[in-house]
Automatic annotation (TrEMBL):
Keyword Transmembrane helix among UniProt keywords: yes
Organism: Meiothermus hypogaeus
Top-level taxon of origin: Bacteria
Protein name: DUF4383 domain-containing protein
Keywords per UniProt: Membrane, Transmembrane, Transmembrane helix
Transmembrane segments: 7-33, 39-56, 63-85, 91-110
Amino acid sequence: MAQKIDLFMGLVFALLAVLGLFFAPGGLILGFIPSTTGMALVYLITAVVLLYGYFTSDQMAHLVSAVIGVVYAALAIIGFFNSSFVGLPTGGWNIVVNLIAAVVLIYDWLGTPRTAT
C-alpha cells in the first residue's frame, strides 16, 4: 500500500512540477497556487524521490514517506508565519498543498502496514 501511495503522490508532484515550469502564467499554478522555478524544481525532486520509493521496496517507501511528510509538514507550518522561505513561496494556497501532502505521506508512513523483509 505504501508503494501505491508513493506512486500516486509522485505523479501528483510531477504534475505540479510540469505545471509550475511550463504552465504557470503570472507565477500561479492553476491560477491560485503560487509557484516559482525553484518551487517547481522542489516538486520535481519530490516526485523523483517518491517514485524511487515506489520502484524499490515497501520499507524504502515508508522511509521516503516519513522524510518527505515531515519536510512538507514543516513547510506548511513555516507558511503560516512567512510567505516565503529560502526563496520558495510557502504562503497562500501552498500551505494547503503542503498540508495535504504532509497528511497523506505521514499516513503512508505510520498508517499503512509494513511487509516483512
